[in-house]
Structures are given as structure tokens and as C-alpha cells.
Amino acid sequence: MKNAILFLLIISSFYASAQNCNAPISNDEVQIQYKKLNTQPTDQLKLNYLNTWVRGRCLLSEHAFQLASVFYDDGIRLQFAYAVYPNIFDKQNYYTLFDAFNSLSYAFRFYDFVNGNIIEYQAPPPPAPVKLFPELNYPSPIGYKGLVGCNLPMSDNDFNILVIPIVDQQGDMNRMNAASQFMLSNCISIAQMMMLSTLIQLDLNRMKFLKQNLTKSYDIQNYNFAEQVFSTQVYKNDWNAYGDATVKSLLPPLVPVAPVCVVTDSEMNSIISSIKNLSFSSTKISTAKQIIQGKKCFTVSQMKSIVNLMDFEGDKLEVAKFGYDYTIDPQNYYQMTDVFDFENSSFNLLEFLKGKK
């Protein structure tokens, strides 16, 4: 392809017009933008970003070639070449861009454009707004009357501007830390917190971020909308259980009710010692059930201590389900998922709890 292009250059009587800029931008700045471009997921987003960034800047042809190489599609690459050509500082070297194309036909089109052989050139449309966040059913804080974790949330326009430094962070941990710090300094809605969470890749890390910051958001009782950011039902159920418990803990009780009975610390120590000293898993299960049924007054935290004494995952699940009816704070029973090693066991328990409501 390069030989064909050189032949066209030899027979062409066209030479680049005078430069219309004073000095090209530095190599360091180009490399920064090149790294940012490689984080964009699609060619169209890369083109939108570049068309905005290149305005008013002069580039060396070698830098234009490097930026053109980030595209997968020659058609998009050609649109970038059209847009960047007026901003090339060393136009005498514009042919460097020909080597960016995979197809000879696209290189010819750019050649014709440079040499004025296109009768009417349609300039590419202005870049479409870049969508940073997925299309979800985001709740509106307007008219919200429930529990609030901060004063009025910031406007969406301010949010979309101020969130850019978080978008630029690399890796889940950096984005989680930056987003959490952002929430300490600003009042944001559940919708905006959902958007922040979508910048975090792993469901597990999204869950940690949302749980850490739910009570800092404005419209706390819109928490259930945030289940949309999770890819599996296990996480959706876990999140809704957490949000439900959090809201109940913040709302004043309608009628304060003291626990009917309690299991003291000394009694718990005796129970744990009795079960721990048993040798067989079946005996541990039967003894645990007897004790649970006899006392009837365990907190979820105490029940977790008993369940953790079981030897096998299936035994833990069996005792955990049995103990639900004998706890004094069943609204916190979702916390029992912490004792399991496998996600399937957590899902099984959460499904069981749904049937108890």
C-alpha cells in the first residue's frame, strides 16, 4: 500500500498549504491523551473524545498517526483523519497518516480529500454527548419525603462535571476510594450514587461501596432502585435485605417493645463450649437445635456463633434455617450470609428468608 501512495505523491502537483498554527503540542500531552483513549470502550466514544480535544490544538503528523491507530474501524479512522488534517503542524508530512489505514481504499479517500478531489465534503456531525453511565431506571429525588442522609443533592449538571476525576481513576479500589471521598464532601441522590457504583467493575466491590455510603445519600428510602446495578439475583437480594434493615434501624419504632427474653453472655459461652466439645457433626446439629428451641431468645449475632460451630456448609445452612424462628431480631437475619463460604448457600438462605416475609 505504501508504494501505491508514494506513487500518488510523485504524480501529484499538490503541496501542503501554509501552516495555520504556530506550534504543536508536546509529546507528553499526546501520550496522556493516547492512554485515556485506550480506556474508551468503543470507536465512536474515542472519536467523540478526540474531535472535542483536538479543537484549537496543533499536532505533528506522527502524533496524528499514533492517535489514529487507536481505532479498529477504518471508516471511523477516516473521519478522524478528516477532522485532524487542518490541525497538522507539519502538513508536508501529512502522508504519514496513510499508513494508519488497513484498507487501501480508505487511504485513497483521505488522499483525495487532501488534494481537493472531493467536490462536496460533508463535515462530520458534532460529537454526540458521551454517556458515562448505563441506561437504568434512576429514581428522582424531586418531591422525596422519606429519610434523608444529607441536605439537598447537587444538580445532575454539577454531578456530571465533578465526577470526571473519578472516571479517570484506574481500577476498582481507586474508584471506590475516590467515589467515597466524593460522597463525604457532597450531598448526592440515590440515582447519582448508582451512577458512581457503575464505574466499579466487580459486583462485590459495588456492594461494598453502596453499603458503606447508603446512609450518606439524600433519598435513602429509594435504595431498592440500586438493585439494578448488580448482575446476579444473589447480590440484588443481599442489597435489598441490607437496605430494608438499614431503613428499619433509622426509623423510630411505632411501639417500643423490649425483648421478651435474652440469652446472656455467660449462657452463650456455656452453649458454645457444649457444642464445640461434641465429636460428630450429626450430634452437633441435633444438640444445637435442642438448645435453640429451648432458649428461643437469640440475637442474630449469637445465632451466627452457633452456626459457625457446624463442620460442613450444608450443616450450617440447616441450622441457620432452623434458628430463624428463634431470634429476637429476625430483620437482621440477612447478616447470617456472612457465615457461608459459598455464594450458593447465601442465595439459598436469602430465598428461604423471602418465604418468611
Provide an overview of this structure.
It is built from 17 helices and no strands. The protein is mainly α. It folds into 3 domains: 113 residues, no CATH class; 95 residues; 92 residues. α11 packs parallel to α12, α14 runs parallel beside α16 and α16 packs parallel to α17. The N terminus is likely disordered.
Envelope shape: elongated
Q: Give the CA-CA distance, first to last residue.
A: 70 Å
Overall helicity: 40-55%
Number of strands: 0
- Describe the oligomeric state of these chains in a short phrase: single chain
List the helices and strands and how they pair.
Elements: H1 2-11, H2 27-37, H3 43-53, H4 61-68, H5 74-84, H6 104-114, H7 156-162, H8 164-167, H9 172-185, H10 190-198, H11 203-213, H12 233-250, H13 265-276, H14 281-295, H15 300-307, H16 313-323, H17 343-356
Helix pairs in contact: 3-5, 5-6, 9-11, 10-11, 11-12, 12-17, 14-16, 15-16, 16-17
Short précis:
With 357 residues, this protein is mostly helical. It has helices spanning 2-11, 27-37, 43-53, 61-68, 74-84, 104-114, 156-162, 164-167, 172-185, 190-198, 203-213, 233-250, 265-276, 281-295, 300-307, 313-323, 343-356.
Task: Based on the model shown, name its key terms.
single chain, 357 residues, mainly alpha, 17 helices, disordered N terminus
